[in-house]
Amino acid sequence: MCSLLLLLVVAPAAALRGTPLRATTRLDYDHLYHIGSPVDVFKHCVLTALLRRCTEKASPLTYVETHAGRGLYPFDSEEAATLAEFEDGHHKLRARAAGREKLHADIAAYLAAQRPEEYVGSAALAALALREGDRGVFFERDETCADALTDALSRLGAESTVEVGDGYAGTKKLRVSTRGLVFVDPPYQSGSDTDLIAALCGHLKQYWRAARIAVWYPRGDGADARTERLRHEVLAATGAFDVLDAHLTVPGDASARLRSSGMLLVQPPYGFDDDLESLLPELAELLAPGGSWGVEWLRRG
Ligand SMILES: C[S@@+](CC[C@H](N)C(=O)[O-])C[C@H]1O[C@@H](n2cnc3c(N)ncnc32)[C@H](O)[C@@H]1O
């Protein structure tokens, strides 16, 4: 009774990813509570577009995810059902997209990758997109999530490496000679993520120059100063590299749910700003009438 009460009290507030609140009594942060929310859909549609562009070239790609999560997330789990954020995001998008004659290719690809019983998260989307000869390396600090991810990737038939441990430090230890895409998706609960992200970007700029970097971040709800700092630090750490910023906001009560998030893209593929400018308006409109979006070069060489 006591733990049930605790869960009921903290869970809605914990929907504001980026606050120091705990989403569960067991883990610091469990993405199961937030699967398929509007901000998750934005993140995973942009990632789908990035993966499409990064797998167009024949040369091998190394994909690294610093905060991989579970890969596949059952919709009917107690955690996912607590907030049911997917009803406002993934489910709404799917229902509205079904009534359309023409759908943006990246939204269609995101929806096609999804499964009826399980939400397909970033690691699973990436594992499905990688080709023979590509490599996937997934870091996850929580052992339970890492075990779930290993199981998910094996069920998908993916040959990827799951490393249990800190994704910032682990990524720095990799020695890679191929093109790369590094996806950084932290829970923003430690207070030090901005510094850690900037340090990782600086490291990659020096030691893995062929890596593109994508950093998801929460927006609004008092996060503006932190967003500004993140943008500033990433720009400072990446020298002359191009940096693109994309974001999407859906209307609604921001005190109850995270409604807005962004993605910083270091060395995005050529013309990716145009890709996003065709993807995001359709995504915003499908998710919620009155949704807004933006694409902005923070630096362009
Ligand atoms: C936002 S969730 C990841 C969601 C996942 N990328 C997706 O979109 O499906 C963040 C994950 O990072 C894990 N985590 C937290 N700190 C970490 C760290 N320093 N290194 C690796 N994983 C970490 C958490 O256990 C959690 O599973």
UniProtKB/TrEMBL annotation:
One Pfam family from the record: RsmJ
UniProt record, GO biological process: rRNA base methylation
Keywords linked to the UniProt accession: Signal
GO CC, alphabetical: cytosol
Molecular-function GO terms, alphabetical: 23S rRNA (adenine(2030)-N(6))-methyltransferase activity
Signal sequence, renumbered to the chain: 1-15
PANTHER family, alphabetized: RIBOSOMAL RNA LARGE SUBUNIT METHYLTRANSFERASE J
Protein's name in the database: Uncharacterized protein
